[in-house]
Specification:
It contains 14 helices and 19 strands. By secondary structure, the protein is an alpha/beta fold. It folds into three domains: 128 residues, Rossmann fold (3-Layer(aba) Sandwich); 229 residues, Alpha-Beta Horseshoe (pyruvate-formate lyase- activating enzyme), CATH 3.80.30; 62 residues, Beta Barrel (OB fold (Dihydrolipoamide Acetyltransferase, E2P)). Strands 2-1-3-4-5-6 form a six-stranded parallel beta sheet, with helices on both faces. Strands 7-10-11-12-13-14 form a six-stranded parallel beta sheet.
């Protein structure tokens, strides 16, 4: 009987792509993949180690699997990913329940590692992080009509609060021909929505071609038959060019949506973060983007409680959010991470204050979201079907206004049966804080 392997992928969508590549190798080698680790013989945990909350989730997951192993329902545990790469030998010591502890440069050898584990050998390996593979075949674990296209690995920006460069290594782009080949394969196998991701997507190609090539890549992706929606996440503000905006405005397949993480608006705070801009520059940028791409959805992320953030600087951020009126926004309390420059900064803000400030920003954003949603009453929007809510007795999905996993949904009724991945036209009949309610029309 085939040995059953279950994958637990924690953290971001970039990590998910790595998990899917491991799953492909395991399946190709004859292992049976199961979706529930509790039903598996072997569990692989691809951890996140970016901030405190992510580390706590990873540790809790490993300990829970350890209990299953003690009970005998699970035989082996393999842990990898950012938490393991960050702490290496310390992780190997702290998790004796793990039969293999491997770095991100070793996941390409997951089959060999599992073979050793099944022979009752404990494996601890840490290949150079730059050995992490940039591309490869995958077993998609998302809904069948959409997936992520990871266009680069690592980061070279060295923001003072961020551990990603020391965990994942320097920024490395995937050659464009490899990405086009992968995207064509995905489209041929039923993917209609592609979400372009990297730690810094707008920097794509500079390390290979001498200049950023995101606009060119997006143009080429739009030529692929079968793709219907292409969305770009995580573009740094200083890298937003008119060329990129013109491509987004021109190409029908590119949804009018950009995620631009700014982290703050105060110039002094941003300088200490090693980030670009100030309130005036950022506000001018967003005005320019909205002028170049009418009705674009703008998403950002913010950090409150960065060391030294005064009450006045926080109030400046709150007022900035009210003025700019982002369509989508996430705000996080600063997480003090060892190994980063900001860890040793003076004037650390206590966690309670940082969290309270984040709550205030999110309360503001909820009001903005409510007001924006109310403007969509009676609007007719295209939506993709993601599933059926048996409790609400209605279908649910997303419009172009929302990215998978991080944004809102639309809940709707339909007189006719639907299938996951169908595109339908919805009339909006009601609104919630972040979600929409509607009905299918023109059936």
């Amino acid at each position: 009987m085939a040995i059953k392997v279950g994958m637990v992928s924690l953290g971001c969508s970039k990590n998910l792509v790595d998990s899917e590549r491991m799953l492909y190798k395991l399946r190709k080698h004859g292992y049976k993949l199961v979706t529930e680790p509790g039903l598996a013989d072997v569990a692989v945990v691809n951890t996140c180690g970016f901030i405190k909350a992510a580390k706590e989730e990873a540790i809790e997951t490993i300990l829970e699997l350890g209990k299953l192993k003690e009970e005998g329902s699970l035989k082996k545990i393999i842990i990898t990913g950012c938490l393991v790469e960050r702490y290496k030998e310390e992780a190997a010591e702290q998790f004796p329940e793990a039969d293999a502890v491997i770095g991100i440069g070793d996941t390409k050898d997951i089959v060999d590692i599992l073979d050793h584990v099944l022979a009752d050998e404990r494996v601890v390996r840490f290949a150079p992080k730059l050995d992490a593979e940039l591309c490869g075949e995958r077993v998609l674990s998302t809904l069948p009509f959409f997936t992520y296209l990871k266009i680069a690995e690592g980061c070279s920006n060295c923001c003072t609060y961020c551990a990603i460069p020391m965990i994942r290594g320097k920024f490395r782009s995937v050659p464009m021909e490899k990405l086009i080949e992968e995207a064509k394969f995905l489209a041929e196998n039923g993917v209609t929505e592609l979400v372009v991701i990297a730690q810094d997507t707008a920097l794509y190609g500079k390390d290979i071609y001498g200049e950023p090539k995101l606009a060119e890549l997006l143009t080429e992706l739009c030529k692929i038959d079968g793709l219907r929606w292409i969305r770009t996440l995580y573009c740094y503000p200083e890298r937003i060019t008119d060329e990129l905006l013109e491509v987004i405005a021109r190409e029908d397949k590119l949804v009018k949506y950009l995620e631009i993480p700014i982290q703050h608006c105060n110039g002094d705070i941003l300088s200490r973060m090693n980030r670009w801009g100030d309130a005036e520059k950022l506000e001018a940028l967003f005005e320019h983007i909205r002028a170049k791409v009418p009705n674009i959805i703008l998403r950002t992320t913010l950090i409150t409680g960065f060391p030294g953030e005064t009450e006045e600087q926080f109030e400046e951020l709150a007022e900035f959010v009210k003025r700019v009126r982002f369509d989508r926004l996430g705000c996080f309390a600063y997480s003090r991470e060892e190994g980063t420059k900001a860890f040793d900064f003076p004037d650390q803000i206590d966690e309670e204050t940082a969290a309270h400030r984040a709550d205030i920003i999110m309360e503001q954003q909820m009001l903005i979201s409510c007001e924006n949603n109310e403007k969509l009453m009676d609007a007719e929007l295209e939506a993709v079907v993601e599933g059926f809510d048996k409790f609400g007795e209605c279908w649910f999905g997303r419009t172009q206004l929302d990215a998978p996993d991080i944004d809102g949904k639309v809940f709707f009724t339909s007189e006719k049966p639907l299938a996951i991945g169908d595109h339908v036209k919805i009339r909006i009949t009601d609104t919630l804080d972040y979600d929409l309610i509607g009905e299918v029309i023109n059936q």
